[in-house]
Amino acid sequence: MSRVLCLLLCVSSFALAQNSNTQSNGSAPSPAVQVVYTIDGSTLTTYNIDPQTLQAAEVGTITPSESTYPYLITSPNGRFLYYEAVQDYSGTGRNLYVYDTNGSGLPGTTPVQKIKAQWLFGMATHPNGQFLYMVAQGSSSNGFTPYAIVRSLIDQNNGKLSQNVTEATYRLESGTSFCSPTILGFNTAGTIMYDAVYCSYPHGTSAATYYARSLDLQTGAFGGGPAALYLDYYAGSGYENVQFRNQLMFDFTQTEFSGDYVNIYRVQQTLGTPLVNCTSTMWTVCGNFVYALAHPSGRYVFLFDSTNITDIARVNLSTQQITQTSSIPYEVQQFSPDGTIAYGVNDVNGALDIEIYGFSSASGQVTQGGTISVPSDLDSWFAAERY
Predict the structure, then answer these.
(1) For 130-147, what is the HEC assignment?
(2) What confidence score (pLDDT) does residue 23 get?
(3) Coil, strand, or helix at residue 231?
């Protein structure tokens, strides 16, 4: 695991170029600013979404050093932005940059920290904002590849990462049989981390094992945690999409021969029978969908169907039913972290329109807003919020 450890120890710092955004007058935090980041070519653009009009306003741009295969996340309050990308399509020169942002979520032109991250493949910030977890990959040998989930401490003054600790290690198959881990997120309280190991095998067979690991809120260290669910399916005739929301596990399954379905479980030691089993007999869209998302509240599912409409339905655990409330005429791909905005996408002659819709968790209804247009439908974009 020496190369994994090197990934997280080879750190070089940049000068802090931004002023602190911390309030100094003792007043209560202001409401969240809804933010969308887009990356087109070498330009990262920040937009703010007005919560009343749902219109987007550009607030500024920066030019990161790398912009191929970009990925970013923010701290829970949106102040710190963690951005990774590579130099070119060969995948070389991967770096992780830490940015401080202003009150609009706009990152400064100079990062506060740069980490050489050639073997970094995934990251997530803890809900309390004190820790960042990363998936690191080592060098393959004899048909196996080592991986690690590493915890870093976040400096609350500038967002820099330090004190790296390996929390879990894996020795997974590679080559014709390929496995890789990923971090899926946390429960609301931050006491559980959800992660998974995905494996693909010859002849189209695939499998996934999901874990619910307890976390120490003070140290961020892992506790115990059994595998939540093991899924085995034939990739050529099906697809499994599992998401964790608000103590619930949403299992969106697509099968070529027996129809699609949505199963919802409560996350516990043994999953047992699903709380909700939605097939076409309960709701037609459950039996035939293209893409699916669980709302951050865990109270709704968004299913994109073959007619290019995202159907929205309320989850009722008491009656074990899923019932439609509204729809959006685009594929919904992301939510604002608080779930008040749903973002759909619309391909327009090779360009991309990000369609903004307000969403009410109380009623399940949507309100159409504005549009963010980016030059290419291959451009990356990310929803966040800044407190």
Answers:
(1) CEEEEEEECCCECCEEEE
(2) 34
(3) strand
CB neighbours (10 Å) of residue 214? 12
Chain centroid to Cα 166, Å, comes to 21
The 10s digit of each residue's pLDDT in 362-374 is 999 999 999 999 9
In the chain, count of helices (H) and strands (E)? 1, 29
Residue ranges of the chain whose pLDDT lies below 50: 1-29
**Is there a contact between 358 and 328 (Cβ–Cβ < 8 Å)?**
no
Residues 6+ apart with CB under 8 A from 292: 241, 250, 252, 262, 301, 302, 303, 304
Helix (H) or strand (E) holding 125: strand 120-125
Helices marked H in the chain = 2-9
Are residues 317 and 301 in contact, defined by beta-carbon separation less than 8 angstroms? no
The pLDDT score that the predictor gives to residue 271 is: 67
Distance, CA of 268 to CA of 279 (rounded, Å): 24
pTM (global) more than 0.85:
yes
Determine contact, residues 185/192, Cβ cutoff 8 Å.
Answer: no
What pLDDT is recorded for position 257? Answer: 67
The structure tokens listed for 170 are 């894996």
**Which segments within 155-282 are labelled E, that is strand?**
161-173, 178-186, 192-200, 205-214, 227-234, 238-245, 248-255, 261-266, 276-278
Q: Residue 30 corresponds to which tokens in the numbers above? A: 């202001």
Output the pLDDT for position 30.
53
DSSP-derived secondary structure for 56-80 = EEEEEEE--S--EEEEEEE-TTS-E
pLDDT of the residue at 313: 98
Contact 242, 264 (CB under 8 A): no
CA distance 187 to 191: 7
Identify the DSSP state of 2: H
Q: Is 203 left (phi over 0), alpha (psi -120 to 50) or beta?
A: left
The alpha carbons of the chain give a radius of gyration, in whole angstroms, of 21
- How, if at all, do strands 120-125 and 113-116 pair? unpaired
Length of the chain: 387
CA angle 331, 336, 341 (to 5 degrees): 65
